[in-house]
Write a structure and sequence with these properties.
The protein is an alpha+beta fold. Helix content is 63%, strand content 11%. Strands 2-1-4-3 form a four-stranded mixed β-sheet. Strands 5-6 form a two-stranded antiparallel sheet. A hairpin with a 4-residue loop joins β5 and β6. The C terminus is likely disordered.
Length: 311
């Protein structure tokens, strides 16, 4: 199979997203401002206008999205075969030449408000095939980077990753690690972010925003969408608190109001419920326990409010 058109198809996909951002960025920004509040306007504008986007191709992503594709299965198959061939060719090269080859063949380009992120960004993050937000420290400076697999992006996915960029901040750096604000475990964080993204998307559409129009098309899906129902009561009960805590990167504001220990138990139980459901051994008692932890957090929150009133 000849792959002379694959990179060209990828570049066209990159242009579709870049054209979309150029046309709709102001409306997107306003949707986020409407969601979080006018007081965060300058911060939201600054972050979104300075996000670094990297565009790439990945057989890992295309295989997932092909399952939900509404058309153009042959195009997905073609791009999957191209990416697999690139990986195969890489293994035949001397080790010192492999990274450069991968960058040339799989990274299409970047929109870089500050600096040349394309050359600095860790290639391993892209080989994992994730459409994702990354907060990276490059040459001593924090860079907010969103990696987008072309022809596997819709408007909600883009909003989801931008929302991560708004709610994530590097708090400290050690020789071995980078520490971020994270009031919840990773699963709760993703579920809440998806809930928020759906609401921001609704606001975006109310403002007249248009969807990304590109082929192939697919049904919107996130791996954990099915489990949004688990955190719906929690999110709706504490929505204002969660929004403020995340946009200000204030973990303690959330944890102190809800009770850090109870919140941790809640997050661990949600993770356990998902694992049990995947294994086919979920019980009604597990959901009841989740509701009890929610009631405990409500009591913690109300008790905290009472303390404020009695000071």
């Amino acid at each position: 199979m000849k792959f002379d058109k694959a990179y060209e198809i990828g570049k066209k996909g990159q242009k579709v997203i870049e054209d979309f951002l150029e046309k709709e960025k102001k409306v997107l920004i306003q949707a986020f401002i409407n969601f979080y509040g006018e007081e965060y306007k300058i911060y939201i504008e600054n972050v979104i206008n300075n996000i670094n986007f990297i565009y790439f191709m990945s057989d890992v992503v295309y295989k997932d999205y092909k399952k939900e594709a509404l058309n153009d299965f042959n195009l997905y198959n073609y791009l999957i075969a191209y990416c697999e061939e690139v990986i195969h060719q890489t293994r035949l090269l001397p080790v010192k030449e492999r990274e450069k080859f991968l960058r040339q063949k799989l990274i299409l380009g970047a929109s870089n408000p500050k600096g040349n992120i394309k050359e600095c960004f860790p290639i391993d993050n892209l080989l994992e095939g994730m459409v994702a937000f990354h907060s990276e420290i490059i040459k001593g400076e924090e860079k907010k980077v969103i990696t987008l697999c072309v022809l596997a992006i819709d408007t909600i996915i883009l909003i989801h990753e931008i929302n991560h960029a708004l709610n994530t901040k590097v708090l400290a750096i050690s020789p071995d690690n980078i520490y971020y604000n994270m009031p919840f475990n990773s699963l709760i964080d993703e579920l809440i972010n998806e809930y928020m993204s759906l609401e921001i998307y609704e606001e975006y559409k109310k403002l007249g925003g248009e969807d990304i129009k590109a082929l192939p098309t697919f049904k919107h899906f996130i791996a954990y969408d099915y489990y949004l129902y688990l955190i719906e009561p929690f999110y709706n009960t504490f929505k204002a608190l969660i929004k403020t805590g995340l946009i200000t990167h204030n973990d303690l504001y959330i944890q102190n109001n809800l009770g850090k220990e109870t919140l941790n138990k809640y997050g661990l139980l949600v993770k356990e419920i998902v694992e049990k459901d995947l294994d086919g051994c979920l019980k009604e008692e597990d959901i009841q326990e989740l509701n009890l932890l929610l009631e405990e957090m409500i009591d913690n929150y109300l008790g905290n409010e009472e303390r404020k009133l009695t000071r």
